[in-house]
Amino acid sequence: MKRWLFSINTTLNIGLLYLIIVLFLTVTSIIVLFLAFLDFNQFHQTSDILLLFIVPIMIYDNADTDKSIILSDNKGKAGIYLWTHKLSGKKYIGSAIDLSKRIKYYFNTSELKRVDNYICRAIISHTHSAFSLSILDHIDTSNLNMKDARILIL
Fold it and tell me: Roughly how many angstroms between the first and final C-alpha of the chain, as a whole number?
């Protein structure tokens, strides 16, 4: 009798193992097919692929002409933003406790020249009209102290 139970358990275990392998191969095949349709030349980093799955809450197509709207929409709000160079598709992600203040900084040419980083040089070189600005998320920091708010946003 014990042999019979052992053979049933072995058959069930092999069946479950077979099912797990088939499911794994199916999911892997779907992922490979999905990735095959993507043009990986447009991605500069692995993080760019992750951006495919993030839906911005607001997109401003022309940072230059939308400046006043951008500043008023984000006044006093904490959040995460994304600058995208429209021609090359290169991206820069940042975060701020006050988005309006941070974005004002990007519109101040003297501040851009003072700080030497990738996005500042790109905005100076290409001008604001070459960029779109997306707000990826607004984050509620109303009941947090400054230190905790910074940690949450990062």
Answer: 62
H, E, C per residue of 60-105: ECCCCCCHHHHHHHCCCCEEEEEEEECCCCCEEEEEECCHHHHHHH
Cβ-Cβ contacts under 8 Å for 65 (sequence gap 6 or more): 129
Residue with tokens 């077979």: 18
Q: Take residue 57 and report the two structure tokens written for it.
A: 């809450």
Average pLDDT rounded to a whole number, residues 126-136:
94
Closest by alpha carbon to 51, among 73, 79, 83, 74?
83
For position 6, what pLDDT does the model report?
Answer: 46
pLDDT digit string (tens) for 62-110?
Answer: 999 999 999 999 999 999 999 999 999 888 999 999 999 999 999 999 9
pLDDT band of 37, cuts 50, 70, 90: low
**Which amino acid is it at 32?**
V
Buried b (16+ CB within 10 A) or exposed e, 77-104: bbbbbbbbbeeeebbbebbbbebbebbb
